[in-house]
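Review form for a predicted model. The reviewer records the input and the model, then writes brief findings.
Reviewer: anonymous (R2)
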Amino acid sequence: MIEDEERLRRARAILIAGPTASGKSALAIKLADRLGGVVVNADSMQVYADLRLITARPGVDEERATPHMLYGHVDAADNYSVGRWLADAAVAIEDIWREGRLPIIAGGTGLYFKALTEGLSDIPPVPDAVRAEVRAAAEARDTPMLHADLMARDPETARRLNPTDRQRILRALEVLAATGKPLASFRQARRPGPLARMPVEKIFLAPERAELNERIDRRFVAMMANGALDEVARLAQRGLDPALPAMRAHGVPWLIRHLAGEIGVEEAVAGAQADTRHYAKRQFTWFRHQAPDFEWMTPPAG
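Model under review:
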C-alpha cells in the first residue's frame, strides 16, 4: 500500500500505528519526505521534553531535516491527557493543511488514534484544586485500594481498568470528585474527532514477534549506551509525583530503582526490557480488537 503514491496523496492524513520499536518513525519520515508531509507525534510518552532518549524520540537531526510536531513539547511535571493531545493535534493538523501539506501521524498510543477518528467523551475539565486534593488523599493508599474504592463508586469504569493502572484510576476518581458523576456516565456524550468521516490511510506495522522482541532489547541497550541513565537521573532529581505519566515511561521506574541503590543495573535493564516487550504485546492486542480498520503490514526494509 505504501508504494501506491497516488492513493496516499489523495488521503487527508496518514496514520501510522504499531508496537514500540516497529519502525513507525522511520516510515513516517520516509513518507513525509516523499509526499511533502509533516510528522505528528501520537505517542503519549514522546510528548515529554525530559524523555528524548528513554522514549526513542526522533533525533535532533531528524527533527531538523523533516518537519515534526508535538514531540517534546510538554514538561514532565504536567499530567498530560488524551483530551489535551487531541486539542493540540487538531490545531497542528489544521496548520499543516493550511500550508498545503499532508499530516502523517505516527505513534503507538491507540487512544490517540481513536480520538482522532471517533472523538472523545465530553468530560468536563477537572479543576486543579480538585485534582490536587484527590491525589493528596491517594498518597497513603496503594493502587488496589484505590481500585476497590472506584469499584464501589463507579463499577462500570472500574471493570474496564486494570487494577494496577494507578493513573487511570486516579483520573476516574478525579472526575467523580469534580462532577459527582461516574466517568462511565460521560461515555455516550462524544464530540467527533478532527478526522471523523475523512479519507485517511491507516497503517499498523506488525513485525514478526520474535524479531520485534530482539529489537526492543537491542534498542534499550543502545539507549543506555547513549545516556538514558543520565536522562532518568535528571528526571529523578526533580522529585516529581511517581504517579505522573512521565514517571511511568518504560524503563524509568526500573532505572530510578537502580539510581536509588535498590537493584543493580543489569536487573534494571532486564526489567525495563521485559516491561517493554509486554507493552508491545498489549499494543498488538489493542489494535486488533479496538482498531480493526487499520491495514496490518510488515515494516518495509531499510
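Findings: The chain has a mean pLDDT of 94.
Further findings: Residues 265-290 form the longest helix (26 residues).
Recommendation: see findings above.
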